[in-house]
Amino acid sequence: MTATIQIINGTYRGKSCNGLTFELVRQYERTEKNSFVTVKNNGNFANCPDNIRVNVAGPMDYQFVGEEHEIAVNKSVPAEVTETDEEAIARIRERFDVLHSMTKASAEGSIRAMIVSGPPGVGKSFGVEAEIEKHTLLDQLAGRRVRAEVIKGSATALGLYCALYKYSDENCVLVFDDCDTILLDDIALNLLKGALDSGKKRTISWLSDSAMLRREGVPDRFNFNGSVIFITNLKFDTMKSQKLRDHLDALQSRCHYLDLTLDTMRDKFLRIKQIAGDGELFKDHELNETQQADILEFMEQNKNKLREMSLRMALKIADLVVSFPNNWQAMARTTCMKPA
After folding, report:
1. Distances (CA, A) of 9 to 38, 119, 290
2. Confidence at 288, pLDDT banded by 50, 70, 90
């Protein structure tokens, strides 16, 4: 049986392999000079051998893809546990505390640009939006123009230009949530680079004729003095497209880049467990402690069968517990799991 692994934290010839998957050739080995796992290249690195050694610090720096591989390997190779659940939860909590603090600093203008990377459904958008709402509360109560906006979904280059102008004043913050289409548009990317530039003066221009700009009274050149937060599911370090990587590297060099490092199924589950333990996850469902514990146990036992491991999935299951208290597990297996 062949096994497939995903690298969590590793390099090959100085290049990051984080997030890449490989066919396993030999398990983790350690020599006097380095430690590594041997895998099939399968075209991941051009002009390189068929079998390559990915440098990792230990067995915890890669995970097996597929439940059957985890079972097979765990029987033959004892797992090296370097981090307890409590330690992992503390690490995850610290990352999200940093996210909240950095968002607050962005809203106050002391941090001008930040990229937040993490898997979907772990609460990264919620944390940012909560801080932005606090920042704009006084504006709303006073009837003043709100100094922040969260833009979700697709955005054109012209729409991006107009949004940047609208929030170009100091202490304004513009949040792009799941707007990855911007990264695929060269014009939009160049505008975003201009807004995120580390120079003292950030001048943004639109030199093409536009009836929309004339209609909205938007100038063809302005100085951007606000802050930008870009929230994405993409891991910049693992993109294979060289053209896109060049653009992402340019963005990353201009910003604070916060990777929430929720790369494993275990980390995602522990994030859910953390939010539940804080009393925030199920607060609108009026579930008792036993019901909440049963939901978490169900998710952990079926982690490789659920359609996704996320806060949204936990809430979906909680809805079923409320609606079908006697057979919610059967309902969850039908509606929340991948077909066998």
Report:
1. 14, 16, 37
2. very high
